[in-house]
Amino acid sequence: MPEPQHIGPEFLFTAAGRVKTVEQGTPECTAARVFHVAVSPEGFREDSPSFGVPELAFERVPLDLRAFEAAILRSEPEATLSSIERAYSKVTSQREVQIEVGN
What we know:
The protein is an alpha+beta fold.
């Protein structure tokens, strides 16, 4: 029986016109699931209000990423995360959060 497939981190179509998927249990699948949690604000899903991450837009810098990581691990406990924060633009005070995923 083939492994179940999941939608990848980007909603893309293959040349055959099918949605591009990743195989369950692979590192790519774990990264895709973490991506989907990380880009969803808490409360985004009515059926799972704790799904998603807390809003970081109005947090003080440097950002406290512990709550952000905890929210991801609540939905994807088998992932191993490493997060870093960088100044994206000194002019506009924008920040960038990079998450590396391992399993």
